[in-house]
UniProtKB/TrEMBL annotation:
Assembly, per entry: Homodimer.
Pathway named in the protein's UniProt entry: Amino-acid biosynthesis; L-histidine biosynthesis; L-histidine from 5-phospho-alpha-D-ribose 1-diphosphate: step 7/9
PANTHER family xref list: HISTIDINOL-PHOSPHATE AMINOTRANSFERASE, HISTIDINOL-PHOSPHATE AMINOTRANSFERASE 2
All copies of domain Aminotransferase class I/classII large, residue ranges: 30-354
Leader peptide range in chain numbering: none
One Pfam family hit: Aminotran_1_2
Record's keyword terms, sorted: Amino-acid biosynthesis, Aminotransferase, Histidine biosynthesis, Pyridoxal phosphate, Transferase
UniProt-listed InterPro entries: Aminotrans_II_pyridoxalP_BS, Aminotransferase_I/II_large, HisP_aminotrans, HistidinolP_aminotransfase, PyrdxlP-dep_Trfase, PyrdxlP-dep_Trfase_major, PyrdxlP-dep_Trfase_small
The species this protein was found in: Paenibacillus rhizovicinus
Keyword Transferase listed: yes
GO molecular function, one term: pyridoxal phosphate binding
Name recorded for this polypeptide: Histidinol-phosphate aminotransferase
Length: 365
């Protein structure tokens, strides 16, 4: 068997370690997973009720156009329904966008480090990835702009950036978007936007309205707590959305995901409480990192990238033995781990485990 050349040396995605696997392998009873930026507070009770209600219809294909959900999101954002496309997570929207636009010979520009799925999908299509190093953990937009050529099709801006958690602010993004040629798509991945409290965060909807080449990527997996249902969306000009829709599988999102997303949007109280508790958890973690003399990037999502002054694999293993699953092994950040902000109890357990690891390794006195 001979697969397409582009995938010959492509790795299979390595997700954060599952809790059950760690329990089994290390014989631990209590394991906390702070590796995948999942919502530690679950999801809305109204979403659960909506899922149960859809059980009745499990044998019926879902609405291909997610009509009800599209109406709810359109109203939420103040846009039209034909400006939205839904996917099995925003991961699938990334996949569809790449599938619709990139072919061998095309170029696509992204930061390094950033969310790996831009690169992953572009590689599969045989496109050339131009990776521009982050500057102080943040997208270097002028450097990215300088790399645009006649071949460039898509530029990715992950805001807040995963894994660093940093943001690009409105003015910087404004200056950037105005200089990007109108035939180049600017994909603004805002998977963590609900958590952002910085007043200078971009008004991306305004950019989307003004520029036909801007697409926003959002998800119900993080702040809304629906990661396992796989539901996210892209928002952009109707012409752009129609093109992405052309490569969409007919039934790519489920009834339960659509119903749960509608209910989640309506449950503002649950969302707000998650955002508040996340901010409290973030303040606690930062205070503890300060106490231990650890540097970290300004975190705007529900995770923090912290320099533990140890090879990150060693820190990861040490934490794992103490029942905490973190995320490690970024090429350009050999001593950093990325940790999801959990519940207060999880955060305290993580800090205790980290302190123990760093004391054992003589990083802390
Ligand atoms: C989690 C995440 C996504 C996608 O999550 P889905 O579950 O596929 O919606 C997209 N972009 C970034 C930066 C993420 O961290």
């Amino acid at each position: 068997m001979q697969p397409k050349q582009s995938i010959v040396s492509l790795p299979v995605y390595q997700p954060g370690k599952p809790i059950e696997e760690v329990k089994r392998e290390l014989g631990l009873n209590d394991v906390i997973k702070l590796a995948s930026n999942e919502n530690p507070f679950g999801c809305s009770e109204q979403a659960k009720a909506a899922i149960l209600k859809e059980f009745e219809n499990i044998s019926i294909y879902p609405d291909s156009f997610s009509t009800e959900l599209a109406a709810a999101v359109a109203e939420h954002l103040g846009i039209e329904r034909n400006q939205l496309i839904f996917g099995a997570g925003s991961d699938e929207v990334i996949l569809m966008l790449v599938r619709a636009f990139l072919t061998p010979g095309d170029e696509t520009i992204m930061a390094n480090e950033t969310f790996p799925q831009y690169r992953h999908n572009a590689v599969i299509e045989g496109a050339t990835c131009i990776e521009v190093p982050l500057k102080d953990g943040t997208h270097d937009l002028p450097a990215m702009l300088a790399r645009i050529t006649d071949r460039t099709k898509i530029v990715w801006v992950c805001n807040p950036n995963n894994p660093t958690g940093t943001i690009i602010r409105h003015e910087e993004l404004d200056a950037f978007i105005r200089q990007v040629p109108s035939n180049v798509i600017v994909a603004l991945d805002e998977a963590y936007i609900e958590y952002v409290t910085d007043g200078a965060f971009p008004d991306s909807l305004a950019f989307m309205r003004e520029f036909k080449n801007v697409i926003l990527l959002r998800t119900f997996s993080k702040a809304y707590g629906l990661a396992s249902l796989r539901i996210g969306y892209g928002a952009g000009h109707a012409d752009l959305i129609r093109m992405v829709n052309q490569v969409r599988e007919p039934f790519n999102t489920t009834r339960m995901a659509q119903a749960a997303a509608v209910a989640s949007l309506a449950d503002v109280e649950f969302l707000n409480s998650c955002v508040t508790r996340n901010a409290e958890g973030k303040a606690y973690m930062c205070k503890e990192f300060d106490r231990m003399g650890l540097q970290y990037y300004e975190a705007h999502g529900n995770f923090i990238m912290v320099d533990v002054k140890l090879p990150s694999g060693q820190a990861f293993d040490g934490l794992l033995r103490r029942g905490v699953i973190a995320r490690a092994n970024w090429k350009h950040y050999p001593t950093y781990i990325r940790i999801t902000i959990g519940s207060q109890e999880q955060n305290e357990a993580f800090i205790a485990a980290l302190e123990s690891v760093l004391t054992e390794a003589a990083v802390l006195g």
